[in-house]
UniProtKB/TrEMBL annotation:
It comes from Rhodanobacter lycopersici. PROSITE patterns: HIS_KIN. Keywords: ATP-binding, Kinase, Membrane, Nucleotide-binding, Transferase, Transmembrane, Transmembrane helix, Two-component regulatory system. This is ATP-binding protein. The keyword S-adenosyl-L-methionine does not apply. PANTHER family: NITRATE/NITRITE SENSOR PROTEIN NARX-RELATED. SUPFAM superfamilies: ATPase domain of HSP90 chaperone/DNA topoisomerase II/histidine kinase (SSF55874), Galactose-binding domain-like (SSF49785). Residues 520-607 form the Histidine kinase domain. CDD domains: HATPase_UhpB-NarQ-NarX-like. The chain crosses the membrane at residues 178-197, 204-228, 240-257, 269-287, 293-314, 321-345, 351-371. GO terms for molecular function: ATP binding.
Amino acid sequence: MLLALLALLAGCARQHPGASPTTRVQTLQHAEAAPSGWDATAPPVAGWVPVKLTDFWDKRWPRHNGVVWYRLHWNQADPNAPIGLLLDYVCLADEVWVNGSLLHRDPSLVEPLSRRWITPQYFVLDQPLLHAGENTLLVRVSGIAAYQPGLGVVRIGDPETVQAIYRKGMFWRFDIHLFNFAISAVLGVLFLMFWLLRRRETVFGWYALTTLLGAGYAWTFVTLSPWPFATTDGWESMNAALYVASTSTFCIFQLRFCEQRWQRTETALLLYSAASLLATLLAPHVMGPLRNVWALPMIVPNYAAIMLFLWYAIRTPRADLRVMAACMLVPALVSLADLLVYLQIASSSDYDIGAATTPLTLVGMGFAVAWRFSAAMRRVEGFNAELRHEVDVATTQLSETLSREHTLALSHTRIGERLNLVRDLHDGFGGSLLGAITSLEQSPPSPEATRTVATLKELRDDLRLVIDTTTREQDTDLAGLLAPLRHRWSQRLETAGIDSFWRFDGLDDCRLDAARSLDLLRFLQEALTNVLKHSGACRVDLLVRHAHEQLHAEVRDDGRGFDPANLASRGAGLASLHSRAARLGGRLAVQAAPGAGAALQLDCPAP
C-alpha cells in the first residue's frame, strides 16, 4: 500500500499544476470582499474592499464571525465553449453564484457549519451561465475568525486541464488524509487486539492508543460535517484534545519502546491530556478558539521524544529500531516546515507535505512493533520446536530400543529353535542319509544304484547348505559360504558337460545373517539347477558383487532360452526365485529369448 502511495506521489510530482499550459488556464488572484451577518441572503451594496487571494479575513476583520462575500470578474470571449471553474480553498462553508445563478451551496451555512474547508471545489460552466464579455463569480463564505476563514485562488479555463488540477488537489488534500485515517484505524485495531491477548506487552497497548487517537484527529480532514458536535468550537476543541492525547501517548510509546519508564513525565503528559479533554467537554467555546494554546506546547515533548528515540536507535544495533528511526526522521523534518506554515511564519504551500509523509511514520512504527512481536513469537516457536524435537528424539530412541530388544529376543528364539532342528537333522536324517550312500556305494554297481547315489548326494549337499548357514555365527561371511557351493556345483556342472565361470567382487567385508545367507544360497542353487535341467547350455557365468551397500547376483547361460512372456509355463522354479528375492528385500530381473540363452539378475540391499 505504501509503495502504491509513493508511486502516486511521484506521478503527481511529475504532473505539477505549474506544468499546465498557462494559455488554457487563468488564475484569478484579485477579488473584492465585503463582510455581512450570518443571515445575509444577498451581497451588501457598500463596504467592498480589494483583496489578494489567498485571503484570510481574520487578519483584516479579526473579530468577525459570520459571512464574507467575495466577488471576482473575468472576460469570456466565447460563451458557447464550456470552461472549468476551480475554487482552490474555502473555509469553512460556502455558496457559489455565477452571473446571478446559484451554482453550489453547502448543506449548512450557519452553525454547525459544513466542513469543506480542505478540499477544492470543481464545476463545469456552460450556457446559459456564461455571458460574452464580463462574467461575475460571487462566493458567500461562512466562517469563524478563530479558524482562518477565507477564500483561495480561483482558476478558470479548459475543463480537462482544470479538472486535472482539481484531481491533484483532491489527492493531496483529501485522499492522503483519508489514507492516513484508514491505516491508523486498521493498525490501531490490530495492535489493540494484540494487547488484549497479551496484556504484559504494554508497548502494543500504547501504540494502539496512539494510532486510534491519531485516526480520530485525521478524521477532521475528511469529514464534511461537524457531527456529533453542535458547534464548530466543539469540533475544533475536540480536535485539539485528540492531538494532545495522541502526541502524549506517542511520547509514552517511544519511551516504552526504548525500554524507558519516566513515571513523572508520563504522568504529566496524561494529566495534560485529561485536562484538555475536560476543557473540551466543559468549555468548548473557550477551548476551540484557544486550541493553539493547548496544542502548541506539545511540540516540545514530541520532538524531544523523537530525538531520544533516534539517539537510542543509533546506540542499539537493532534492525527494527533503525527502520523505525529512519521512517520517523523524514516526517519530523517535514513537520517543521508545516509548523511554520501553520503559524503563518512561512508562506502557504499548495500541498500538505506532512500529510504525505505521515504514512511513512505509521508504517515504520507498525514495522517496528510487528518486528518485536514477531521476535517474541519466534522465541516461543523456537522453544516449542526445540522441546518437540527433544521429545521426538527421546520417543524415537525409546521406540528403537524396545524394537531392537524385541527383535533380538525373537531372533535368539528362532536361532535356538533352528539349531535344535539342525542338530536333529544332522544326528538323525544326516546319519541315515550317509549310511544309505555308503551302503549303495559298496553294493554291486548298477545304473539305478548310480542314479540313487547321485540323488542322495544332492540331498546331502542340500543338508550341508542348511547346516552351514544355521550353525555359523550371525552375520556370516558370505565369501566363506560361497566357496563350498562353488566347489560342489563346479564338479556337478563339469560332469554334465557345462563350463562354469565364477566371479566374486567385494565380498571380503560382506556379512549376512543366517536367514538371508540361506535365501541367497538357495537362490543361486535354484538358478544353477534350472541351468542344469532345462537350459541345454554349454557355458554358465555366475557373478556375485557387493558395492555401495548393494548386493548383485547374476546367473547367465548360453542355452536354448525361453519366452519371458510365458513364465507361467516354467513351473514353480521361477516363482520360488521371485519369492526368495522378495525375502531378501530386492527384485529379480529375467532376461531371456528363445535360442539366445537366459540371465537371472538379483539386486538387494546389503549394508
